[in-house]
Specification:
Blueprint: H1 2-34, H2 49-59, H3 62-70, H4 76-81, H5 96-105, E1 106-108, E2 114-116, H6 118-148, E3 151-153, E4 174-176, H7 185-203, E5 220-227, E6 230-237, E7 242-244, E8 246-248, E9 251-253, H8 255-262, H9 267-285, H10 291-312, H11 326-341, H12 346-350, H13 352-358, H14 362-375
Antiparallel strand pairs: 1-2, 3-4, 5-6, 6-7, 8-9
Helix pairs in contact: 2-3, 3-5, 10-11, 10-14
């Protein structure tokens, strides 16, 4: 009887073990199906701001994207560090937007407590696990590439200064293993310089510069570092700020640096703008086109004309070249022509403050200019 009992018990254990293994295989297959990273874009880990929200909307839905957008969870790292985006919906917060989202995503219990709908909360968890798996796969691929790709970097241009980490040699050709991209440091370096040069050209008008160029080792310094066999690039502004550059696909992006340059707190950009304003003021008040010099050379021409009339009479006005003051007059008149032709005086002519000051002298200048025009007849 006892033997039969133990035989029966062993048989039930065997059946239970079989059922348990089958259930585990089932759950593993389900997990494999839903955690299939092939559903994700290849560059999803680099998505930020609107690109990230568009991805969430496409993958989970508009409601999920709205919640993350309102909470300013704008990138994959930020999302992974957020334990539960839905937790805030159950709190007693006086906020119209959150209240509207709460009505759409939560269920109200009889005791007036709120619980988030399981589908909403679990979809966030599923996406988080999927992104974590994507990162793991990326790291495995990276380790394989480290063994396959060894890029020799030589310092071929002594004028180019690269600030590298202590693990990289700056005095002799060195080996740098890059798992991020097949591009060499030289190519990354030249690409970034070209981008900065083009950005200066495109934005000099918006930044109110007549001429605008940012030079390496003068206005900024590019810093290349080897962090665990990964190439990291940062840029140090002359104001002292150090900006880390993000990466999209194979190329590093300068958007963080551009944002810094437009920030009013950048002391270097403020100094450049101040210098530009001083140069503009100097151009307005010196040389042909300045208010004082304008009056001076017109006045000189008028005095020369009056001298001619007084000494030789108006009848000889056509023979200026024989008079001893003709050189002074011709010089004044040439400066007048240059004043009319130079493009740099457009700013002076369009300056409202100077125009306002000139309104009182319009009649007098008009008369003087008519006298000068008579001199060339």
């Amino acid at each position: 009887m006892d033997g039969y009992f133990y035989w029966k018990l062993d048989k039930e254990k065997s059946i239970f073990g079989t059922i348990f293994r089958e259930h585990m295989l089932y759950f593993q297959s389900v997990a494999h199906y839903y955690l299939n990273t092939s559903q994700l874009p290849n560059d999803v880990l680099s998505y930020t701001d609107q690109d990230f929200y568009n991805f969430v909307e496409m993958f989970l839905g508009k409601l999920h994207a709205r919640l993350l957008s309102y909470l300013h969870i704008s990138s994959v790292p930020c999302y992974l560090l957020t334990e539960n985006p839905c937790a805030i919906l159950t709190l007693d917060i006086d906020d119209e937007v959150l209240e509207q989202l709460s009505q759409e995503t939560c269920i109200k219990l009889k005791n007036n407590q709120l619980i988030v709908k399981p589908g909403v909360e679990n979809s966030f968890k599923c996406l988080k696990e999927l992104l974590k798996k994507k990162i793991e796969e990326h790291m495995k691929t990276t380790k394989r590439n480290i063994k396959q790709q060894v890029i020799t970097v030589a310092n071929t241009n002594s004028t180019q200064s690269f600030s590298l980490s202590s693990s990289m040699s700056t005095s002799s050709p060195s080996l740098f293993t890059s798992s991020c991209s097949p591009l060499t440091i030289d190519k990354h370096h030249q690409y970034l310089l070209n981008c900065i040069r083009q950005w200066c050209i495109d934005n000099k008008a918006n930044l109110q510069f007549n001429e605008f160029e940012l030079k390496e080792d003068v206005d900024f310094t590019l810093i290349f570092s080897n962090i665990n066999n990964f190439l990291e690039i940062s840029i140090q502004c002359k104001c002292g700020s150090k900006i880390n550059l993000g990466k999209n696909a194979e190329k590093f992006q300068l958007s963080n640096y551009y944002k810094h340059l437009k920030d009013t707190r950048c002391s270097h950009m403020n100094a450049l703008k101040k210098k530009e304003q001083e140069q503009m003021q100097n151009r307005q008040h010196t040389g042909p086109g300045g208010n004082q010099s304008d009056d001076a050379w017109i006045s000189t021409g008028v005095k020369s004309w009056n001298k001619i009339k007084g000494s030789q009479g108006a009848r000889k006005k056509g023979k200026i070249y024989v008079h001893n003051s003709s050189t002074v007059h011709q010089s004044s008149f040439q400066r007048y022509l240059i004043f009319k032709q130079r493009k740099s005086n457009v700013d002076y002519m369009l300056d409202k403050n100077l125009q306002h000051q000139q309104q009182q002298k319009i009649q007098e200048k008009k008369s003087n200019e008519e006298i000068i025009e008579i001199l060339i007849d």
